[in-house]
Design brief:
The chain is an all-alpha fold. The chain has two domains: 1-59, Orthogonal Bundle (Arc Repressor Mutant, subunit A); 61-204, Tetracycline Repressor, domain 2. 73% of the residues lie in helices and 0% in strands. It has helices at 3-33, 40-45, 61-86, 90-107, 109-116, 130-149, 158-178, 184-196, 198-204. Helix 4 (90-107) runs antiparallel to helix 8 (184-196). The longest helix is centred in the first third of the chain and has 31 residues, at 3-33.
Length: 206
């Protein structure tokens, strides 16, 4: 390997390391004080980089937040699609979707707190980011339609079912993360029971 190639390789490694350092620092600051209160200066102070280095990688704090939430969304969406596409019964479809969603945040609480760091994330479509949230909803609807075509999910309004599943997942997740007495399994059992038999069905169980 010639000297020029070595130098280029080192520069690329430095670029990757610098970008990662900014992302790590931003995650900490966003989680501690929220997106709205965070400044670029707050982020760069958590690194060993010169202040101007930030703008070699990102144009604003919002772009950093988008990069972080996109990385979460891509991983979570892929996991959810996999379990939904592997489901062979309605209960599998519902239960495995909820369990995968709750388990991701139980195992990655820092991502939950990052999600919560955005004060404007009050709806399902913006809870992670507008792009990732909407993509996740669209994928869920597509998977519901495919499951209906395969007689796994009964015929119903796909838009309403998507909204119901997504809204319940968000709300129950919040309760789970804020209440130490509720774990991922209990949250999954409750959510699954709610959609499979409803509250009245649960009450009728001996």
């Amino acid at each position: 390997m010639d000297q020029q190639t070595v130098s280029q390789s080192r520069r690329e490694i430095n670029r990757v390391n610098n970008r990662d350092a900014i992302l790590r620092a931003a995650r900490e600051v966003f989680t501690e004080i929220g997106l709205g209160a965070t400044t670029v200066r707050d982020i760069i102070r958590r690194t060993d980089l010169a202040s101007g280095t930030f703008y070699n990688y990102f144009q604003s704090k919002d772009e950093v937040f988008e990069a972080l939430t996109n990385s979460v969304g891509v991983v979570l969406r892929a996991s959810l699609r996999q379990v939904r596409n592997e489901a062979t019964t309605l209960e599998d479809f519902v239960q495995n979707s909820f369990h995968t969603y709750f388990s991701y945040y139980a195992d990655n609480p820092q991502d939950y707190h990052l999600m919560r760091a955005n004060p404007n994330a009050d709806t399902l479509s913006t809870r992670l980011s507008a792009v990732q949230g909407q993509a996740g909803l669209n994928e869920m609807r597509e998977d519901i339609e495919a499951a209906m075509a395969n007689n796994i999910v009964p015929e119903t309004d796909t838009g309403l079912l998507t909204a119901a599943l997504g809204g319940a997942a968000i709300s129950i997740l919040d309760e789970m993360m804020e209440n130490d007495s509720i774990d991922r399994d209990e949250a999954t059992r409750f959510a699954t029971q709610l959609f499979m038999t409803g509250i009245a069905g649960k009450q009728r169980k001996p």
